[in-house]
Structures are given as structure tokens and as C-alpha cells.
Amino acid sequence: MRLIIALLLSLLLIQPVLAAAIPNESQLRQELKLAEGNKNAPNQAETVEALQSAINWLTERKESQNNSQQYQRVIDDFPKMTQELRRQLTLEEAKILPNGENLPASDLEQLILQTSSQLLEQARLLQQEQDRTREISDSLSQLPQQQTEARRALTEVQRRLQAQGNNQTTPLALAQLALLQAEAAARKAKVDELDLAQLSANNRQELARMRADVYKTRHEKIDVQLQALRNNLNSQRQREAERALEKTEQLAEQNGDLPASLRKQLQINRELSAALNDQAQQMDLISSQQRQAAAQTLQVRQALSTIIEQSQWLSASTALGETLRAQVAILPEMPKPRQLDSAMADLRVQRLNFENQLESLPQRAKEFKQDDGSPLTSAQQRIVDAQLRTQRDLLNSLLSGCDTQILELTKLKVANTQLVDALNEIQDAAHRYLFWVPDISPITLSYPLNVAQDLTRVLSLDTLTQLSGAFVMMVTSRETLIPLFGAVLLVIFSISSRKHYHAFLARASSRVGKVTQDEFLLTLRTVFWSILVALPLPVLWAALGFGLQNAWPYPVAVAIGEGVTATLPVLWICMISAAFAHPQGLFIVHFRWPVKQVSRAMRYYQMSIWLIVPLIMALITFDNLNDREFANTLGRLCFILLCLALALVTNSLKRAGIPLYLDNKGSGENMINTALWGLLLSAPLIAALASTVGYLTTAQKLLARLETSVAIWFLLLVIYHIIRRWMLIQRRRIAFDRAKQRRADILAQRAKGEEESTHTPNSIEGAIEVDETEIDLDAISAQSLRLVRSILTMVALVSVIVLWSEIHSAFGFLENIKLWDVNSTVNGIDIAQPITLGALLIAILVLIVTMQLVRNLPALLELAVLQHLDLTPGTGYAITTITKYLLLLFGAILSFSWIGIEWSKLQWVVTALSVGLGFGMQEIFSNFISGLIILFEKPIRIGDTVTIRNLTGTVTKINTRATTISDWDRKEIIVPNKAFITEQFINWSLSDTLTRVVLTVPAPAEANTEEVTKILINSAERCSLVLDNPTPEAYLVDLQQGIQIFELRIYAAEMGHRMPLRHEIHQLILAGYREHGITLPYPPFQVRTETLSRMTSNGRTPPSTPPRNTRRESGGL
Do 108 and 229 touch, CB atoms closer than 8 A? Predict the structure, then answer.
């Protein structure tokens, strides 16, 4: 078999000029089948891969040759093609299409459907040619680089082909030679294709433009025909409705007085005729909307093509960028699809009503009678029959019209969808190509003179006269007078009620902080009234802007109105902040922010109201006045002053200590907070500098989004403190109620004369005296606050991403900055994939989002979901831990994929690391696996009391590598997880938290045994921490050196009661001994504890001598 393959490949490849030979594709396919069938041949896989790659290269060569033939045909036949397209254009312009004047309504409806389909097809062809024109324009800028790369690749493959040599005998060598020859042929065909593409580009552009003209002319003709057909159909329906109405009126006049049922039927027909007329008018409106949407889509597509074609010249002229921006500014607005959806729903309801009326006609024909109930006369019956026929015809026409109207609305919805897509594309293109292009010229030495000249021109525009005319128009027009009058009334009411607002703040501030009077409703009412008090001035400002915008004869007033309306959110935020910062308001009284800090933050409040807001208004006014005529001078000056004012306000807020980022401890002293404040301080200054060199629009958009992000962040900070105050009030209220309950229990015990209650070590007498003035923030639940911070952080992150996603295409230039190349194999062909700066930044963003999710999502999962489920602590911790690792793994894989590190390349590294780490870090992996076993089998849980390696304490953390135990001295002991799997340990509360305490009590030899036993039992019964079930037991267990040894066996509810129980029981025993005159002999007590789970299964008492690993000395457990 090897000999046959070698012979065939030799016959195929050995030619007089070996380097110029081109393999035959059919023979290569035959050799590929033979190589695939010969599984035992050496290097069989490499041979198959080489042959398959050679076939792929031949396929690419064929595609390049086909493209080259098309380009050559365009060059050779260009005159003939242009002549044919001009002839078609002339024929299309002279063509007269039928308008269906003499066709019946049913034929007209069918013809309208066919014409609509033709119109859509012509629109598709027109869009296809426009896209082809844009593709050719895009390729012109890329062709030189593609040609250079293609020639470089051809030179490289020819060099490798010459180095291959002619003495090739093995199948693998022959297959590799065929691969090189096929690649060389494909590279040569690609070079020829690119050369012809460059030569024919102008011809192809001209042909595409001419074909687009033909399709556009044909589209316009068909559109006119479609409109004529719809007009004829509507006219027929209107005439039909008028005839039916005239016939109805004639019958009513001829027959004089008719029964009420007939008059009602006549009225129904009149209403149906009117509905048919309205339907015809609605069809005209829908048709006009369809034509408008199609024209707007065409306008947007042409603007998009213009921007893309002129993008390479934008850097050479600021005037070109300004012209394109002006073209984008006059584009139509986004259509509203909800209006169409509601209209279609109303139409379907009307259609159902018409169907019900049509179905009920036979039944209604039997209901017509005289007013006295007698049958109708023959003349009246003829009128009824005529009316019912008219109603049936009207209902059928209305049903047909509803169907047509629904269909046309669906087409209008499709047209609007296309318009939305086109608007989104041009917005992306505008951001991509125009965002980083200067829109005005840089500042020069003549700038002050230009500012003075433009200021003189603005004043010479008769601004005061236009404003006075606009105000007269505002007060004389009902549309603007009513909102303005309502706003003035609201301001007057606000001023008159301000004293009530201050009185409410005084009453609320006197109650805040007092446990018995404080409530969260006070905070909510303060927020509500503060917003309401801050509302009148912004409402008056909005009414003023609305009135100025409606004064359309005065362009200066309209531009000022747009500026006033745009500054409304800024003004409202300033007013609300001032209301919140009142000395008795939300920030100081409810949030307990320092007065000095709040006053420092509001230091520049007057400047915000009287400087920043007017500057923003003036900036937007100059942007909208006379096509940005004054943006270069006065607009830029306002923006620079605005940036300086924002820098001062930002510095004031920073010095006030307002945090932009809170860490896990709720503190703002961290690196992220410092970095954010540095960004906010430098952003206005950088924006001002950018405007001086011509990037005014870019600086405005970036600064506006940055300040909006800060506003969102500040809003979430206020929400966080409101929620924290609610938690504080709830915590203090619960603590107060518990203190009152405990005091009531103590007073009840005193009333019963239980004097022994004074022996209780955990008495909380006096705990009701809660400090009502000083708020201890540590009392707030740390977990709940962490949950709130996590939720608000995620909300802030999503809001900022959504806000900045509108201009994401403006950063498309990052995709052009190539950092390195990554080789990947696709269909056996190595492809160099460039890694750009944009991909690197996205990878970093993915890592940041992943770290935030890993940090916050497990806590959200535990606090919001798992704590409401019936799960043990170990199970919940296992779920959150696994979730955290899965998120980290998924985020890492996704981030690495953006920079070209795919899983197929990582799996070998992971395998090697697994083997190496398995030997070098065996103990760490052993502890990790043991931690997973502990989390799922749960031999220990958080909160359990355990003894291991002579160490006893409570489990506080179970991590993947080690477990943390806190002993009775509050020392944290780190125990590797492996110890809990491979070693023996005691879990004192695994299945039962009940603990038995055994006390060894001595008594003198002369003491009465029964009396001592009663003293011990009575002391156990009087002890508040001893359980009644199981019952306490006392035994005389030994006699040593003239001393009676008693053993008292009692039970506690949990391990935490051991030391308080010992303290109390010892006091009671000593008191009992003193009452009965018994002297305590030597030696002192010894005590040991056991859990009920250590008792024998047959219920017998364990021996008094404990095992060695459970023995407790007097100072131990």
C-alpha cells in the first residue's frame, strides 16, 4: 500500500517545473481516501491532514479565481453594463403602472398585496446595493494592507516550496509538497484577486450606484402605484358607505314615522357607515406613515453610507466632522412600537365586535316588531330586509378593512423596526467615527476677540425682544398658560406651608434616637416632605422651559427653553440635597452625619444654584442656537467655566469626607474610594483641557455621563443609609422589648418571694435603661448590612454599565490597537488571531465583575435564599463555597478566552499542574478534599463544641483547607481539615446538645447521709440551669479517709451553660451546708462532664472514672 501511494503521488507531483506545478483536486481526493483507509501506514494522520489542507487551499484558489473573473468582467464590460443600466433607468422613468380604477374591491385588495410584496422586494434590492457600495468603500482603505500581506505570504510559501526539494519519495513528504504547491497557487490567486479588486473598485462602485438608482426609481414608481391602489380602494369603500347611508336616509324619509326597533337599526347603519369612513381615513394615515418610515429609513441609510465613506477624511478637517454631526442631528426620532401594539389590539377587539354583530343578524331579524308588539307591515318588512342587507354589506366591508388594516399595521411595524435598526447603526457609526473627532477649532490668541464679537452678535439678535414676545405668547396660549399658572400656585403654596415643614422637622428631630418614640415612619415622612418642599421651584422652571419651547416663532426663546428644560434634573437634585442637609433634616438628624461634614459639603450650594445651573443652560442654549453657530466661542467658554465650578464642588465634597465606595466594614477609607475621588477631581479639568483643543462635544458627553454616574452612586448611598436606619430602629426596638420582658420576669419572681434569684449570674436587672441619645452602630446586624451593600453595589454596577453602554461604540478604536497575535487552528488551517487593547480591557472588566460576584453573590445567596431554607449550617456553607469556586472558574475561562487563551490550551497546563501539585502539595490537597468531605458529611458543624488533640472549643469557621476553633479563652485555633477525617475527636453536640455534669461532693463522716442527699437534690432543683428531665440524681459512691464521697449527676441544656451551672450549684450547696451546720471537708470538688450520647445504650450509668481523653480537671470543662 505504501508503494502504491508513493507511486501515485510521484506521478501526480513530478512535473518539469516542480515549483510551478498545481495539484489536481480530484486526484488529491482519491489519495486522501487511500490514506484514510490505510490505518497502518506510518505518519498516516499527518499525511491525511496535509492532503486535506491541500484540498482546502485549492478550494480557496477556486473562489479567488471566480472573484477575479467577476472583477475582470466588470473591467471589460463596463461600458456595456453602464449603457444597459442607463436604458433600464430610462424605461423605469417612462413606465406607467396601472392604478386599478375599474377593478372591484376584492381584486384591488389582491393587487395591493402583490404590489406591497413587489415594493418590499425592491426595497431589499436597493438596500443590498447600498450595502455593496458601502462594502466597496470600506475595502478601499483595507486593500493596500491586504495586498502587502498577501504578497508577503506568497513570497514565504514560495521560499518554503523551493527549500522543500525535488527528491520526495515518502507519502508524507509528497503530501506536504502538494500542500505547499496548493498553498502557493491559492496565495497567487489571492494576489491576483486583490489586484483586480483594486483596479475594478471604481467601476463596481459606479455600477452599484446605477443599479441603486434603477431600484430606487422602480421603488418610487411602485410606491406611487400602491398609494393609488389604496386610494381607489378607500374611495370605493367611502362611496359604498355613502350610498348605504343615503339609501338608509331615503327609506327613513319615505316611510315617515317608523317603530323604535327600525329607528334603532337605522342608527346602527349610520354608525357603521361612519365607522367605514373612519376606517378609510385610518388606512390613508397608515399608508402615509409607511411611506414616511420608508423615506426616513432611506435617509438614515444614506447618511450612514456618507459617514462611512467620509470617515477616513475626518481627521483632516473639523468642518467635515461638524457637517456630518449636523446631518446626524436632523435624523428622525425613534418610533414608538407600543402605540402600534395598542392600535393592533384595538383593531382586533373591533373585529370581534363586528363578527358578533354579523353572526347575530339572523336572530335580530326575528326581533323587529311594532311598538305595541304587533307584527310589521309588508312595507316595514321590506325596510327591515333592506337595512339588514345594508348592515351585512357594511359589516363585511368593515371586517375586510380590519384585516387589511391589521396587515398594513404589521407592515408599518416592520418598517419601524427597520428604521430603529438603521438609527441604531448610525448612532453606533456616529460614536465610532465622530466621537473622537474634534468638532471645533482649537483655541488661538484671537479667541478673546472672537468671544467678544459673538457676544455682541448674540445681543444684536434682538434677544430681549424675542424673549418678550415668547413670554407674551406663553401667557396668551392655553397650552402654556395652564402649566405656568399651576406652577406659580404650587410655589405660593410651598412658601406658605414652609413653616409647617420646619415645625414637622423640629418635632421629628426631638423624637429621633429615643427608643420609645423613634420610628422609621419619621424618616420616610422626612424624605417625602423634603422632596415635596424641593419640588415647586423645579416645577416652575420646567413650566418656563415648556413655554419657551412652544414659542416656535422665536428661535432664541426656543433654544433657551431647551436649555432650561435640560437643567431641570440638576436643579431638582440641588434643591433636594439642600432640603436633606437641613440642620434638622435627613442627613444630620436621621443619618447622624457630622454637622461640620454636611456644612462643608454644602459650602458651594449657592454656587451650584446660581452658577452651575445657568452655565449648563447657556451651554445647551448655544448648542441649539443657529446650528451651533456660537458653540466655538461662547459655548466653549461656558463649558470651561462649568468645569472649573464642578472641580470646586467636587473638591468640597471630597474634603467633607463623603465616601464613594464602602468596604466590608462600611468604611470609606480605602484605595478604591481614593481612586474614585481622584478621577472625579481630574475629570472636569481634563474635560476643560479637551475643549480647548477642539473636542467640545466629546468632553461634554463623557463629563455628563461621569457626573450622572456620581449622581446614581450618591442616590444609592442615601438609600443605603435609609435602610441602615431602619435596621437600627428594628434592632433597638427588639432589644428594648426583650429588656422589658426580662424586667417583668424579675419583678414577678420577686413578687413570689424567690430570693434565690439573686444567685443568678446572668441577671439583667437595670438593662432597661437604654441609652436614648447615643446610637451604637455596632448593634446593627453585620450580615444584613453586608447584604444591603452587596445588592446596592450590584445595582450601581449594572446602572453604570447601562449608562455607558450607549456610547460603547465610541471606544471601537481600541479594537484597532493590536497587542499580540494568537494562533488557532480552524478546519486544519492555522489562523493568526490578533489580540487588541479592547479585548484586553474587556478581559480585565470580566475579571473585575467576576471578583465582585465572587465577593458578593455567595453572601446574597446565603442571606437571601439559604437562610430561609431548612438547611444545616454546613450545607449552606458548602453551597456558597462551591458557588464561589464555580463563579471564579467560569469568569477566569471567559476572561482568558478574550485574550486568546482557550480551554483547549489550558487543559494540558491544568493536567500537568495537577500531577505536579499532587506530589508537591499533597498535604494541601488532602486538607482541601477533607474540607469538602466535612462540608457534605457534616461530622462537625459551625457552632459545635469539639475536642481534638487535647484542644476543646467551638467551631467558628469551616474553610476548604482548615477549620477554626475558638476555645474558652477566646483564642482561635487553626486545625487542618485532615485531622477531622483521619483522627479521633469528640463532638459534644453532634446529635444531642444535652450535657451531663457530674459533681463529686465530699461530706464529713459524722454527717447524716440522707440529709446530705436531700441538700444535694434540693440544690439541683433550685438551680435555674439544671434540667428537670432527666431528673437530678445523688449517690454516696465512696468512703475515703473518713470522708463520705457523694456524686451529684445533673443535666444542662447545652455546653454553654456548664460554667454558669457550676457557679450556681456550688453556691447553693455551700448555702445548704451552712444552713444544716455541715462543715466542708478536704479534698475539694472534682467535676467531669459527659453528653447524653456518651451513655450506654442499655441506660446504665457510666462508670464514675472517665476515660483518659474525656477527663476534666477542676479548672477545665
Answer: yes
